[in-house]
Amino acid sequence: MSDAPPSLPSSQPPQEEPSEALLARKFPNLKPKNPPLLGRINGCGFSMFGKRDTDIETGTYIKSYGITFLWIPLLTLSAYRVADADRGGWYFLGKEKLSSGSKILNLAVLALIVISILGIKDSVKKSSPEYRAQQTLNEAGELAANGRYNEAAEIYLRVAYNDTNLSLQAAKKIPETLLAGLKSENDSVKIDSLRILTKSHRSTYYDRKELPDPYEKGIKFAADYIAENPDLALETIEIVKPVAGVRTEHENIYISIYNQQIAAGGKQAIAARKNLALLAEASGNSEAVLQTLEPIADSLDSAELHRVYGQALADFGQYSEAIPHLETFTAGMVDDWKKAIVESDKLYQKAYEQEFEKLDSGAAPESFYTMYESADEDTQSQMVDNYLRQKIIANGNYIRAGRMMDKYANLTPSIMTLGIAYLRNGQQAESDEARDTSLAKAEESFLSLRDVASESTDYQFFLGQVYYWLNKPAEGKKLFDTIIANNPDDGGIYYTLAQTLREVGETEQALELAKLAHEKASDEETKNNAASLCATMSADTDEKIEWLEKTDLTVPSNKSSLLSARADQAYSEGDTKEAVKLYRQSLQAAPSDLNDAVILNNRALVHSTIYRLTGDMNDLNKSVEYLEKATALNPNNSILCANTASALYNAAIREVLLIKHSSKFVQLLGNDAYLRTLYDNEEGREQVIAKLNASSHFKKAVKLYEKATILAPQDLENYSMLFTTYSLVGDYDHLAKIVKQLERAQVDTTSNQEDWEQSMHKEDDKEALENLAKYAEFSARLREQLPEESKVYLDATILDNEINSFTTAVPENLTARRQALEKSLESNPCSQLRSTVTAALSLEAYLAAKEASPEFATWAEPAERSLGTIQLLLLGIHSTHEFSDLVRDLPEVQKFANYAMDYYDRFPKTRDLVEWAITMTFDPDSAPPIAEAINASNRVKSGTKFVQLVAPYSPSITINRFWKMKMAGQDEAAKEEYTKTAAASEFLPDF
């Protein structure tokens, strides 16, 4: 409210304004002035106050005029002589001088104002970012001067990040301060400086050129601390481990410290074993896990350690030992897991609803709603999904749900491994009862996962896969057919199913579904993935390139695969230099994430190929390293298991071949077929096998192949590889078991039979001739690279290949080439050369028989593709045809028989029915001991059964049965059964 000038009380009644004459006489210095401007609001403004120098005669006095605040005078501007008016207020008679008191008060007030202004200005200055930053820099400088470099570096970083005018000055101080801290004698300062360096190692706020790599520096510090202060060494490793990348030097520090603690004994030793085991598991070293935990295996005090130990046992095929440990870990967890899934689902749903409500209420950027309004319905839905996906991961409920499920992160793979352990035990069980019990537990384990996953399509894929593992391929196929029937136009379903079938070994069906996935997919991502999968499974290089060109080549993995395929093409055309260049480019284009199993697998395969072309051991080592790491990351992937097994198997073969051969030979010809170059008799063979069995690479390879047959029970290649391996090393017990496993797998060989029959009926051998020409060109290029002393082994291989393809083209200069190999045998006796000479002699004998007897030629030629030269010669001799004696007495046939019997006699532990048939035909007196050895041989029994399972359509089954019956003295029955079978088959000659 406004204040009127107050009416001051007076001891005398109000008077009229004094006369000017009186005023002039009484106050000669009074200067007439107009009244000042008055006005206040709530006691604040211009007002009259005070009263002094009262004159009784005139009834006047002096009032001060000035500024008031809440009715309190602050500043006196002037003074007036006034007289009280009749109706209140004053008559202003003239202006007077200020009193000394007012002047002093004014000075005091003005001084206060100035001080306040200066104080405010100082406060503003001190509150500015620049001032505070400067003060902070000064503080940092003092800390650094006192050796507290770590604290100083933290301050410099903070100032640099705040983007003030002093940021650059602070940034320049960071490197020198950190360097000083890293060199400090104070361990606390040194380690804190390392911590700061590590946290800011990707910083763009300061120049890091002068600073060391934090990981390398941390490793050095830790190594220095190991002996005197292992706890500090561990702390150092924990600091730099996040920036290790693919480097693993810190693991050696851990191992060294934990081994120290183990050696010291006591409770610390037990804890160290646990830590060491967990470290070994993380690096995929199951062997180290076993070595670490075996001493305390009977006293493992946590479910987690039981899991680690059980998994490691299973990785090495010790399934029966693994089962109790895995059971300890999984016991009671499934029910809790189910409850946790329900609760976490509620939290996930709540998180979704919360974020959707925020989006619906306008919390998103305005641009989102603008774009949303102008988008079509599908795009709108996608926009909402993408936005919510980004927001939900930061939602508290979502985070809590994730943490709730973290406890069960290892449960699914553990149940999987437990199920596989039961499965493997069942497959290897001696009795039907034990097998059925173990397989029932396996199915129960797998189905416990189904109970959790309900009837989701994703789990149906898994359960179908499990049915294949349980040797129920018909049930698996039925489930997959149901999925397709329910989703006939869903390209994503076809793609996932293709992946699943590939995993269990149904490669042909997988390729068909992958092509359908590409055709039916409505989104580019699925199309790209399907095309990539088609490329992966395509055997033909041109077809692989065609599929890869349909992928999104901006994706590094696709670009890398295309470069690799073009490298394959260049190599097949003889341009090795260009091939290596393209392979190297494919590695550069590949994704760099070396914690991705697929990326590691692809890189490994390229490195392996580069090794074969260049002999660079770095590429060979990288190949094995990457594959082992890939398998550790995804141990239940059948393809990774098989690829890694193959790499390790070949590595073991190379190790043994290096006993005799040059590294160049091993690079170019390092496969198991050339093991035969290392021996020429049974004793030599056993020595080679002993070296192979001692190889850690070989042992791991066998275990991984065994695992691959479980995970991909329909993949005949894995069974064949294991069968070959067991036969090679004479492990006939496992040979029999793998045959039983194959029998239970119920592998469908229909498509194989169709392919085989087509090859038997092939009238036009144009493609075969082209392949032979390509092989000849390839072999010629390969031969040029070999050392002179090694060329004979390749020559033998080339001749072997041509002999096997004689129905397409008879090898040129067959006799001369065979004679050259015989001459080489004089200076280099070995099984490989003898085997090729034997094969060459058999073909020479067969061609001689055809020339000597047109009737024999007419009889044998229709079955040439299905039986081969040796069986046709033997059958012809034992048949009732007139040419039988003629064929037996031919010099070429006699020469072959003698040579073959000598060759077989060198290896009595590997006798077979062909050896018996040759010996019985040409040297009957020597045949009985061979028959006795064969009858006692599990190898022959298993081999016969294996052929029946893999190729039930093969005429060799009939031939082997024929010889077996004759060996038992059942000549007439053998003849009768053969005649009956031959009459119903177009692939067997009559008797």
3D structure, described in words:
The protein is mainly alpha-helical. Helix content is 70%, strand content 5%. Helix 8 (230-240) packs antiparallel against helix 9 (249-264), helix 22 runs antiparallel to helix 23 (507-520) and helix 39 (814-827) runs antiparallel to helix 40.
Give a short account of the largest sheet.
5 strands, antiparallel
Distance between the termini: 135 Å
The structural class is mainly alpha
Number of strands: 5
| Poorly predicted parts | 1-15
Please count the helical segments: 50
User: What proportion of the residues is helical, as a percent range?
Assistant: over 70%
Biggest sheet: strand arrangement? 1-2-3-4-5
Radius of gyration: 47 Å
The proportion of residues in beta strands is: under 5%
- Mean pLDDT level: 86
User: Quick one: overall form?
Assistant: elongated
How does the SSE layout of this entry go?
Elements (H helix, E strand, L loop, with lengths): L19 H7 L12 E3 L2 E12 L4 E10 L2 E13 L5 E7 L3 H28 L1 H17 L3 H13 L5 H16 L4 H13 L14 H12 L4 H11 L8 H16 L2 H16 L3 H8 L9 H13 L3 H12 L2 H28 L5 H9 L2 H16 L3 H11 L4 H18 L3 H22 L3 H13 L3 H14 L4 H14 L2 H14 L3 H14 L3 H8 L7 H17 L3 H14 L7 H18 L2 H17 L4 H20 L5 H7 L12 H12 L2 H16 L4 H14 L2 H14 L4 H11 L5 H20 L5 H14 L9 H14 L3 H22 L1 H7 L3 H4 L1 H10 L4 H7 L1 H15 L7 H10 L4 H9 L2 H13 L4 H13 L3 H13 L8
Antiparallel strand pairs: 1-2, 2-3, 3-4, 4-5
